[in-house]
């Protein structure tokens, strides 16, 4: 272990803002991408479900 | 012998991709944990840059992926153009947002690294400018595709743009050799021994592998969304367990 205390770890030898600014934004970007993807998947599945309800009731998309 | 052409159809590929995602996702998490541990707890302090150099464990993987994803995207775009295969064009579209994200992260972490070490967030030099052009190429690809309503035409137009843009990749890669720049030369190259401590290199490579696994998982997730959106009228979707009919 290279660090004597948690405070020393977070200070990063005076470069804390830059190091954690890099790591933080990277983690945020990855989480955001995964959130956007899960919403896109849900809405795509929902659209197929709705469309099949319409088809079952004999209403095609072209008529509407 | 696996028949690869079987998986060129969205119908065969969709469930296969679904089974692959957890493996690549788990691999990405495990490699990232190992890489962050080595990078932040094991790797020594840099003689010149102190602890500030640890940005390398995010910056270099993001930069490598930004270029690598572009090449893979252009490859699938070319396959789609040459063989008129739907799935390869969808694969190219699925890679673009993740590539743009890594390009942004490369620029962002680069700025946060440049400020303490060079004294400036940004310079208009060859390496930084060509990486910014890469971001514009990704954004241009996505904007062009979404501007064309007919998906097959959008695929073709996007593919041409992606292929023309490939010229930028060697410019980024060799920019530190061709021009004078603030940006340091490559720490790792295919021809020379790496010019960095083994533990630093190990952390960096673990993070790069984690980013690669993450990219595969996310691209497969996105290509499955694209398949669901484009093939929503196809009857084979009835066989897919997630789809409620």
Tags for this model:
heterodimer, A: 64 residues, mainly alpha, 2 helices, rod-shaped, B: 245 residues, 71% helix
Question: In short, what is this structure?
Answer:
The complex is a heterodimer of chains A (64) and B (245). With 64 residues, chain A is mostly helical.
Task: Draw up the topology in text.
The complex is a heterodimer of chains A (64) and B (245).
Chain A: H1 6-11, H2 16-56
Chain B: H1 10-42, H2 56-83, H3 86-118, H4 126-147, H5 151-165, H6 168-178, H7 198-230
Helix pairs in contact in B: 1-7, 2-3, 2-5, 2-7, 3-4, 3-5, 3-7, 4-5, 4-6
Helical element count of chain A?
2
What composes the largest sheet of chain A?
A: none
**Helix proportion of chain A:** over 70%
What's the total number of strands of chain A? 0
As residue ranges, the low-confidence spans of chain A are none
Q: State which percent range the strand residues of chain B make up.
A: under 5%
Q: What sort of overall outline of chain B do the alpha carbons produce when their principal axes are compared?
A: globular
Count of helices of chain B?
Answer: 7
Mean pLDDT of chain A: 88
Global shape of chain A? rod-shaped
Radius of gyration of chain A: 24 Å
* Oligomeric state of shown chains: heterodimer
Please, could you describe this protein's structure?
The complex is a heterodimer of chains A (64) and B (245). Chain A has two helices and no strands. In chain A, 73% of the residues lie in helices and 0% in strands. The longest helix of chain A has 41 residues, at 16-56. Chain A has helices at 6-11, 16-56. Chain A has 64 residues and is mostly helical. Chain B is mainly alpha-helical. Chain B has one domain. Chain B is built from seven helices and no strands. Chain B is globular, with a radius of gyration of 20 Å. At the A-B interface, helix 2 of A face helix 1, helix 2, helix 3 and helix 7 of B.
């Amino acid at each position: 272990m290279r660090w004597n205390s948690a405070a020393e770890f977070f200070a990063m030898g005076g470069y804390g803002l830059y190091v954690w600014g890099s790591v933080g934004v990277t983690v945020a970007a990855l989480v955001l991408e995964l959130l956007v993807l899960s919403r896109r998947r849900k809405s795509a599945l929902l659209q197929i479900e709705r469309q099949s309800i319409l088809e079952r009731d004999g209403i095609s998309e072209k008529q509407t | 012998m696996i028949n690869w052409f079987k998986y060129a159809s969205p119908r065969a590929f969709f469930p296969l991709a679904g089974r692959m995602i957890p493996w690549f996702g788990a691999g990405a998490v495990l490699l990232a944990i190992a890489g962050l541990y080595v990078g932040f707890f094991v790797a020594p302090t840099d003689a010149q840059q102190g602890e500030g150099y640890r940005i390398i464990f995010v910056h270099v993987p993001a930069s490598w992926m930004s270029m690598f994803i572009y090449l893979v995207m252009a490859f699938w775009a070319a396959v789609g153009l040459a063989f008129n295969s739907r799935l390869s064009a969808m694969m190219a579209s699925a890679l673009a947002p993740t590539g743009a994200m890594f390009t942004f992260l490369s620029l962002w972490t680069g700025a946060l690294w440049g400020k303490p070490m060079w004294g400036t967030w940004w310079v208009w030099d060859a390496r930084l400018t060509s990486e910014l052009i890469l971001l514009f190429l990704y954004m241009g690809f996505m904007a062009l595709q979404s501007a064309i309503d007919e998906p097959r035409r959008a695929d073709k137009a996007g593919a041409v743009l992606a292929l023309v843009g490939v010229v930028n990749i060697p410019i980024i890669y060799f920019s530190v050799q061709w021009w004078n720049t603030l940006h340091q030369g490559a720490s790792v190259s295919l021809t020379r021994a790496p010019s960095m401590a083994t533990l630093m290199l190990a952390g960096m490579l673990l993070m790069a592998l984690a980013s690669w696994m993450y990219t595969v998982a996310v691209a497969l997730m996105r290509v499955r969304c694209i398949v669901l959106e484009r093939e929503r009228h196809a009857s084979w979707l009835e066989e897919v367990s997630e789809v409620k009919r």
